[in-house]
Amino acid sequence: MTLTPHEVAVSQLGTGHGIPLERITSLRFIKNNIIGNKTKKNLYIKLGILSRLQEIVSVKDDKDSQLKIQAVIVLGSFAFGMRKKNVDLYYPHLGPNCGNEDNITALTNAGVVEPLLNSLNPSGDPKLIEASARTLNAIYASPKVSRQQLFQGNHLHVLVQLLDAYSSNVRQGQDLVMVHTAELVASILARCCETSDQQMKIASSGAIPLLMRLLAGGVSKTQEAALGALAALVKDNSELARLIAQTRLEKGERPAPFILRLVRDKSPTMRLAAATCLTYLNRAGVIPDHYVDIMQTVLPVLVKMLLLTGQVQETAPKILAYLIWESENMQKAVCEMDAIPKLAQIISVMEDGDLMYGIVDHRDKLKENSLLALAAISQMKEDCRKQVIEAKVLPYIVTAMSHPSVGVRAAACQCTRSLSRSVKNLRTSLVDAGIEAPLFQLLSDDDPGVLSSATATLCNIVLDVSPMKKTIMERGIVAKFVHMIGYGDNIVRLNAVWAIKNLVFGAPSDVKETVMRQFGYHNLVALLNDGELAIQEQALNLVRNLACNNEQDINQVFNGMGSGQLLSIIEDKLTWDDQRLLEHALYVLVNIATGSEVHKQSVMKRPSILRSVLSLMTHESVAIRVATIWVIINLTWPDEKVSQSLHERVSVLRSMGVEDRLRSLNSDHDLDVRDRVKTALDHFVVDQQQHGHGVPTQ
Amino acid sequence: MSRRPLQSNLQSSNPAGGLTKKIISRDEWDAKLAGVQVDREDLNKLIMNYLIIEGFKNAAEEFSHESGTKPPVNLESIEDRTIVRKAILRGNIEEAIERVNDLNPEILDTNPKLFFHLQQQRLIEYIREGRIMEALEFAQEELAPRGEENPEFLAELERTMSLLAFELAGPSPVSDLLTPAQRQKLASELNRELLLSQSQEKDPKLPALLKMCLYAQQQLDERCTYPKIKDFTKAELVMEPMGSGPIGGASGASGVGA
């Protein structure tokens, strides 16, 4: 059987072949065959080329760099994917770069990363260093590749040294190679900077001043790569963000105004890189002086990118979403720039197009990011939510809730979550758009992100006394929540308790009873003692909602939990130093005190509860002071039918010093407190007039 | 920059666009032009920018000597691009591909469209040379898989393959594929990518400035009569006779500098 030229080429790479020239020729032949050609890449991997290449790049001998260079380039070609060169190259954290995942796994399994890192040795051939950096950069494009090796030994130190492209000891004629190497290294660092630990290690290795110099250097590709690395360093890291915002470029300028000029650059990828960096700095709160610039320059630039194509269009909405999240003013501004129709256009047009190979990833990402942007824009302003509904994009959002991609599902759900914060009539349009079935489906989603958005959306939707409350209960929603509380992560558990709380809010007694029969009071008691404070808080709030409205509802809770257990829990919570926990505990008391004489007495029989209420009457928080006074008001509420026990209750409270404390609150700076105090004191005064004794001590 | 004086004239012209156009005499115009300071160094930079991006290495060297303008990049990088361009214009696509891979192996791995166009040109060259069996084999082995990966290439592939159905010398709906313009187009596409990979701008500034100038003249034509440049290769100011309409479609820009 005759060998194919490809088989011959691979066989000639073996170490047995002593003639380097022949091996170099074979490598060049292979290189020119596989570049751009996926089929040939697969063929050569099957022929076992990777172990041969690994041997060549692992040789310690530095004399023959030509052979190594060609081998490193061939390795790099295996790592490149079929996707068009894109800005993702510098933004690993914005989403998976579609490299050639299978091939990259084959490369790492063949053990090429360590020898490639070793080939970066600055005393070696600059061409070899450049080629190794390029290949490593392509390998690290895959988020699956472990970043560990890079942070071991001397590697990080060597990489950072290579950022120093503009130092004076650059050899003549090598300047282009050095600058390009620095660009590649900046990109590698951006890709290996995902955790705060990695951020700190890269920063403390001295990368920041060198990245600054690359940023100011004027070579556009290298500037973009430097922006990518700086963005990765400051993302969600206020310490580094502050450090970077306060350094100065060589001419004494701060980085922010410099980057701001790059936001207006001719190249869209540069504009995006610059806008991304400023976005992270802004979210870290370290460039407050540039608020106007962000509003007037960065926002419109990002919005205009929605009309471009490819990677820039794909990434821009995600950055936009991140930038305007939690900023009402920015959301309003973006809304006024007509971003909503543009996003709606992207989302709805994509739906009609036919699916094409290779760009499915791009389409999914574009849809996901556009939905995230819509979610962010409609997060706070009612006007913006109205625009989203008017853009007729709701049916597409609902469809996207059942999308095969987790990211799209989560983003769609985030959208419905924002929209469900709306006033009631807009919430109704969500229900009308058929949100119920897909939303319910998402409550069984494997992804915790999707699950938490879905429960959060549901929280808002079940808040109304709407027909949906009944139908979703018939679908078995409570059992699902119980399951989530048992097995979900803390965010999912929290949202599930929250949703149950909203489900019983203002609900009729029979709904409360049905919910609690399925949920089980023992589960509620467990949650009241949960390890997560936020969950305890929601559980207490649930008790507050359950024991609200009438005596029957209070009885239900008393019977369900046992009044002794309930009051012991409240007694305990009142000793905690957590404002929201205290507030909810107090309002449980407020609600119980609206009940029957038995209910009121159950509180009166707990002197330590009463003492806690008394001491909380001077709490620094207005909300808590108001809550304590409400407890007193309800416990002293005039009622002819039980005048004797009313008098006894007032007397007990008076003897504890409650009336005195109330009088001292007469001069409280808060109007609400003073109003409540007035009502409560009236009760004491009326009692005094009727019974004539128990004059308060001064 | 050269637009500024024209703009100020625009503002002084009759805003209502009445029947009579404002007339700006040759003297007035010359005086205005004389008032505009154009830095000689800036002009030299513009020319250097054009020579480098279009790949005229020798001319750039000469110009650098004569004018003392320092080239902003290594002139060797021009030579690399020139070699690639020449190989394409000769129809030696394989050589061009090998050169590009030596210069930067990332380019063709990350630009499927450009890579496809190069392979398509190889196919065209096989057909031109009458190496039909090789053409078929090449199309099957190299081009068809790319078409599978990116269906947008399929139409172009089909069009190229239909060259086989026609007499090469005769007229056909696909004869444009055999013209030098086809090679030119590819050479420019590749040149742009090489420039981008070297962090250089992909288009020279000079043609853009000429387009801007042409646009400004067209705008001005509606409002006034003035000494205008009609032939950009001569760059002479010509005063138009009264009453003539705007002149459209002047195409002098492409001739400059060639």
UniProtKB/TrEMBL annotation, chain A:
What SUPFAM superfamilies does this protein's entry cite? Answer: ARM repeat
Which keywords has UniProt assigned to this entry? Answer: Cytoplasm, Nucleus, Repeat
Q: What Gene3D superfamilies would the database entry show?
A: Leucine-rich Repeat Variant (1.25.10.10)
A Gene Ontology term for the protein's cellular component? cytoplasm
| Cellular compartment(s) | Cytoplasm; Nucleus
Q: Name one GO biological process term.
A: proteasome-mediated ubiquitin-dependent protein catabolic process
- Look up the domain of life of the source: Eukaryota
Principal location listed in the UniProt entry: cytoplasm
- Please report the name of this protein according to its UniProt entry: Armadillo repeat-containing protein 8
- Species in which this protein is naturally found: Podila minutissima
TrEMBL record, chain B:
User: InterPro entries under this entry?
Assistant: CRA_dom, CTLH/CRA, CTLH_C, LisH, Ubq-SigPath_Reg
Q: Which Pfam families match?
A: CTLH, LisH
Q: Which residues form the CTLH domain?
A: 77-134
Q: Which residues cross the membrane?
A: none
In terms of PANTHER family, this protein maps to:
RAN BINDING PROTEIN 9-RELATED (PTHR12864)
Put simply, this protein is called CTLH domain-containing protein
